[in-house]
Amino acid sequence: MRAHLPDFLLSRRRSAILESTVLAACLLGLSTACVAMGLRVEPSGAECGAALAAPAAPPTAAQHRLPDSQAVRGRNDVLWAWLGTPTARYPHTALGAPVHAGSLHALIATPSGALRELAYNLPIHRVFEDRVPRLADLDGDGRDEIIVIEADAIRGAALVVFGLQAQALIELARGPYAGAPFRWLNPVGVADFDGDGRLDIASVTTPHIGGVLTLHHFRPPGLEPYAKVMDVSNHRMGALEQRLAAIVELPGHRPTVIVPDMQLRALHALRWEAPGQWMELAELKPMAARIERLTPTPSGACTLLADGSWWRVSLLP
Ligand SMILES: [Ca+2]
Ligand SMILES: [Ca+2]
């Protein structure tokens, strides 16, 4: 089940048209296309059977981090990263509380082997409107980059990437602002969506009022959007949970984003193919209740619904 869709034009109506098209293809005997592509959704046990590893204890330096935020352990030059300096200076409650972080922190090992805490403090008109720094080696140099959501009092949220330079935490790249106070965005993840050999960042801009899935090239000092599609959301207003989308990478295919629709009641499977061209890999898949969490698995995603049920989502090759 596949169809090409232009940027910004994905909608329930188009999905309905797509379903009709797929049904017609099935009726015409093109059945392999009907069963070979798409999403399979089936009931599952808690966490879809994944054994939950006990998280490592954060370092003492992170004990005064932003309430309800996570300290994250790195695998390269950043040992730990977390958000600090709780402040109420940006009273937006997208994440459930009007308290946000005024600083980003990283714990590193110096050449002598000693541990050292680095901090990046934002000016008073900005905060990190986020609860988890995301670590990834975006440029493949063996050093971590830190992806966070920043919010500006006038221009709203922006995606920002930090990194280490000369044992200092510095801003490496930033994307466009959402455009107005209290306009927010939520990252999806990192993958090479356009196949150029370099990792890109996906996020959903304004997930509460008309979410736009946006793919960015990491080109310091910029995060440059190169593809967008509408009618998605990866966050419920006021919820602490930010994991509501998954990137699936199957051999021989471009990465696919599994992400809820605007109502958080159905799933899209979207793959970017070329400028102006997204592929919807399945019809919009309705769910029995609102989607509360959606996390990646090797072949798809695991989702928790508001009725407490768990579902395994598989992307069929
Ligand atoms: Ca790097
Ligand atoms: Ca790329």
Structure description:
With 317 residues, this protein is mainly beta. Helices cover 7% and strands 45% of the residues. It has two helices and 23 strands. The protein has helices spanning 12-27, 31-36; strands at residues 3-5, 38-44, 72-73, 80-87, 100-109, 115-121, 126-128, 134-136, 145-152, 156-165, 168-174, 185-191, 200-205, 211-219, 222-232, 246-248, 256-260, 266-274, 277-280, 285-286, 291-297, 300-305, 310-316. The strands form five sheets. Strands 1, 16, 17, 18, 19 and 20 form a six-stranded antiparallel β-sheet that branches. A hairpin with a 7-residue loop joins β16 and β17. The chain is globular, with a radius of gyration of 20 Å. It starts with a strand and ends with a strand. 42% of the residues are buried. The structure holds calcium ion (2 copies). One calcium ion (CA) is lined by residues 137-139, 141, 143, 145.
